[in-house]
């Protein structure tokens, strides 16, 4: 590989402009190559596509955030339902105990005993 093709390889992104007619490369000034020279209409089309892509990306991001928020809400509601079910079972059990206790008190009390009204009248 000779020296000039190696320099071309290294300076691939720059355009060499020689200030002298000699082959001394120390006097060169490097300028960036101009970007692709696309017609203005294509640039406008690309800007429109980029804008559409940006809008789509923002919409997707908004939807993803909304889905995540709904998932968290669903998890919270599910946890709340489970807690309410547990509380309900606990209260049912307590009601059964209290109901049995009240029945026992009523059966032990003479106030709630059935009386024979015919035997008292005689």
From TrEMBL:
Compositional bias of kind Acidic residues: 1-11
Topology in membrane: Peripheral membrane protein
Any matching Pfam family: DUF2205
InterPro entries: SCOC
Coiled coil location: 60-94
Localization per record: Cytoplasm, Cytosol; Golgi apparatus membrane; Golgi apparatus, trans-Golgi network
GO cellular component: cytosol; Golgi membrane; trans-Golgi network
Signal peptide limits: none
Highest rank taxon of the organism: Eukaryota
Keyword Disulfide bond attached: no
Record key words, sorted: Coiled coil, Cytoplasm, Golgi apparatus, Membrane
Family, per entry: Belongs to the SCOC family.
Function comment: Positive regulator of amino acid starvation-induced autophagy.
Name of the molecule in the record: Short coiled-coil protein
Lineage: Eukaryota, Metazoa, Chordata, Craniata, Vertebrata
Gene: SCOC
């Amino acid at each position: 590989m000779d020296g000039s093709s190696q320099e071309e390889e290294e300076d691939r992104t720059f355009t060499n402009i020689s200030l002298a007619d000699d082959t001394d490369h120390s006097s060169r000034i490097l300028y960036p190559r101009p970007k692709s020279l696309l017609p203005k209409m294509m640039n406008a089309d690309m800007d429109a596509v980029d804008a559409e892509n940006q809008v789509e990306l923002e919409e997707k991001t908004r939807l993803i955030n909304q889905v995540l928020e709904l998932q968290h809400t669903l998890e919270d509601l599910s946890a709340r339902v489970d807690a309410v079910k547990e509380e309900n079972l606990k209260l049912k059990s307590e009601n059964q105990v209290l109901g049995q206790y009240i029945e026992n008190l009523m059966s032990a009390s003479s106030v709630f005993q059935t009386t024979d009204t015919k035997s008292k009248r005689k």
